[in-house]
Amino acid sequence: MASIRIEPGSRARSRISGSAPLIRSKFQPPALPRDLVSRTHLLGELTSGRSRALTLVCAPAGYGKTTLLSQWVEVGTNTAGFAWVTLDIGDGDPTRFWTYLISALSEIAPCAGRQSLPALNRRPGRLTADVLPLLMKELEDGTGNLVLVLEDYHLAESQLVAESMAFFIEHQPARLQVVLSARSDPQLPLGRLRANGQLAEIRADQLRFGATEVADFFHLAGIYDLSLAELDKLKVRTGGWPAVLRLASILLGSQGDRRQFVQSFTGRTRQVAEYLATDVLQTLSPAIRAFLLRTSVLQRLCGPLCDTVAGTKGSAATLRELSCANLFINPVDVGGRWYRYHQLFSEALRLELEVTEPHLVPELHTRASSWFEQEGDLESATDHAIAARNTGLSTRLVLRQLQPLVGSGHLATIERWLAGLSWPEALQDPELATARAVAAGQRSRPDEAGRWLDVAARGPRDLRTSAGVSLGYGVDLLRSFFVAHSVSSAHEAALRALEEAPAPIWRGAALAGLGQCRYLLGDRDGAAEALREALTLLRDDLPMLSLASGYLALVECDRGKPQHAERIARRIVDLVEAREFALSGITAVSQTGLGAALTARGHLAEAEDRLGIVVGLHRAGSPSLWLAHALLLLADCRHTAGDTPGAREALDLATATLDRIPDPGILPALATALGERLDVPARRPATFGQELSEREVTVLRLLEAGLSQREIAAELYVSYNTVKTHVRKTYTKLGAATRAQAVRQAKDLGVL
């Protein structure tokens, strides 16, 4: 199987700048056990799925799903290229999920990821619109069968992952086979796929060992003295459950009366957990038992990590010995450095630890967090800090990663952590409240951001935060960015933040917020002054540069300087895209300013595309000024293009949004003015009594914007000759000989 080409060690760098490094072992199927029972018929079932849209291997823990798929990968590399990803709960972040999938596919399909990975980082919210169509086009380039295996899919299935995965399965190239392994049915259209003959399924009943496989299993385990009747009884009592049969093989070695054991052994889940937690552990030395219990808090294990967590030495050798003893632990990488406990065994160990030594659990997670932080794996460090319920450590780690993860499109990871920080102390922590406000604001939920800022404001105003600024400054700064209910209140907060800014970079941020508020209050000159100074101070802070440049571009458009406005906004938009910085609440503001400038310059197709993306981003949140403003600009763009129904639709949405904001500044006035323009009667007078058609008025607007006739043709998707005809008729109706005369006459008549 093709493996991911990465640097030695436990982690590999993804291609996305600013994102977390990828975990190497997730790309490799676990090593096969020595006592492997051949399952040829099931391997054939998997191969037959190549003509189907989806192959699903679905069964509870312990039914051999992973072993079967690993065996299939090993024997199938001559007929297909295999990409493997072992998923975990952190992969519920759709950006992280698709980063892993695309990175894995890129090693068996070299074109994969060339455009889709950068698109994923820039626009993580447009998976089905932009990213996945690019990926599918990339996968179509090439020959040969491809197989993508997603192990433990159930751990990663969030709503956004499920929706994007359903789209991918429906539209995937014919040469790709998608295989999911899960404990329960995924949230995919299985009924439709099944009805259309596009679903291959392997379920628990097929994974159960039959009589011959049970006999082969015990023989391979070195147990030869069981009678056919005893083997049959074990098969019946365990239901052919592979993991339980392995447990039986371990326990049989320590039984004086095997016949009695066979008679009493059962495969019921509760008793299996009891067997694992008591009978298996009792066969081990106290040192090994303590090692297993204390390392059960880990999702993956290596020697140095276990030394730190368990407080022992020589853990690497212990892991190798446990693996050789087939004690429910398997290596997960080729080098044998990283291991993973079987899920049933891990769950049983954690339950036993919580019963016998509950006071140790937070300390063990804290040790794991410290080790991962020293190794540079901040995401795993954060997961363990939260599991330890260590508010201070969790806060420090979350805030340290907040901006990089937001910038790389991994906002869902931040949200997962914040959801886990749910105990009273964490919910009232002022610094964490600011992080919750940022997450909500970047999702365009200003009302939620405002509520968390109210929580943060209860802390000491002069508290020094991990960002090096006072808590009061941070709260006021965020209030000026994420205007929750009142532009006037946000403006007051911006003035306080400006007064308390501790350094030039922080003054620049405060000026960006102040410029936004001044613009929304109708003070364009004051806004321009603040925003220009902000741009000189912010240097390399892309979110703040986006906010400042977007509003400065809007100011310049209002002053009748759309070309200058476009230069201001496009410079930052291009910089954001070049650095593959994710589009979110704040970074979308530069797109809004660029859309306004493009409309004013007559580049309507690009303007509508960019404004449409911004509207889609903000509509996923709650009513906001950013959404209302983008809708107003989209309505203006459509009106300029002659699409009056589309303009009316956008205006109505903007008005409904503004109605839900108590103090929205000047935007209602802008909406009213635009509505009056849309309500002007359709009659378009001309000098000699002939009315201008709607298309002729649209062409006239684009002539006013300075576009050439060929550029107008491109904007309107018509031929150059058609535009020439419209221009000639327009000039005739207006009694004009030049562009300037036509525009001036149209303004005198009230057409423009």
Structure write-up:
This protein is mostly helical and 752 residues long. It folds into four domains: 197 residues, P-loop containing nucleotide triphosphate hydrolases (Rossmann fold, 3-Layer(aba) Sandwich), CATH 3.40.50; 57 residues, no CATH class; 218 residues, Tetratricopeptide repeat domain (Serine Threonine Protein Phosphatase 5, Tetratricopeptide repeat), CATH 1.25.40; 55 residues, Arc Repressor Mutant, subunit A (Orthogonal Bundle). It contains 40 helices and nine strands. Strands 4-5-6-3-7 form a five-stranded parallel beta sheet, sandwiched between helices. Strands 1-2 form a two-stranded antiparallel sheet. A hairpin with a 7-residue loop joins strand 8 and strand 9. Helix 28 packs antiparallel against helix 29, helix 30 packs antiparallel against helix 31 and helix 34 packs antiparallel against helix 35. The radius of gyration is 31 Å and the shape is elongated. The relative contact order is 0.06. The N terminus is likely disordered.
